[in-house]
Design goal:
This protein has 103 residues and is mainly alpha-helical. It has a single domain, classed as Multidrug-efflux Transporter Regulator, Chain: A, Domain 2 (Orthogonal Bundle). 66% of the residues lie in helices and 9% in strands. It has 4 helices and 3 strands; from the N terminus they run ββααβαα. Strands 1-2-3 form a 3-stranded antiparallel β-sheet. Helix 3 crosses helix 4.
Length: 103
C-alpha cells in the first residue's frame, strides 16, 4: 500500500483491499461487478481509501442486515443520497440564518 501524491490518498491493489476489509476476494469482485466500487486507477487496477471505506461500509451492511450484493448497491446509493440531502439542508439553514440576521 502506498500513498498517491496526486490524490493525497492511499493506493492499494486488489489483494491489499481484500486484506484490509477482511472479506473474501469473490465478494469484493462481486462489488466491482455490481459497480459498487470501481478501480480508482483502472489501468493499474488499483483502489483508493475511498473504495476501502465503501467496501468496509458494505461489509458492515452485509453482516448487520444479511444484504445481498445487489441490495448493498441500492442501500449505499440511498445512504449517499441521504447524506447529500442533509448537506443541502445544512447549507439551506445557514443561508436562511444569514438572511434572517440581515433583517
Amino acid at each position: 500500500m502506498k500513498h498517491s501524491p496526486e490524490l493525497t490518498d492511499i493506493v492499494m491493489s486488489l489483494d491489499e483491499l481484500v486484506a484490509a476489509c477482511g472479506q473474501e476476494p469473490q465478494w469484493v469482485m462481486a462489488l466491482i461487478e455490481e459497480s459498487i466500487i470501481d478501480y480508482d486507477v483502472p489501468e493499474s487496477r488499483q483502489f483508493s481509501g475511498y473504495q476501502l471505506t465503501t467496501v468496509r461500509r458494505a461489509a458492515r451492511l452485509s453482516r448487520d442486515f444479511d444484504a445481498s450484493v445487489p441490495a448493498l448497491g441500492l442501500i449505499l446509493d440511498l445512504l449517499e443520497e441521504i447524506e447529500q440531502l442533509r448537506q443541502f439542508k445544512r447549507q439551506w439553514d445557514m443561508h436562511t440564518q444569514m438572511i434572517e440576521s440581515e433583517d
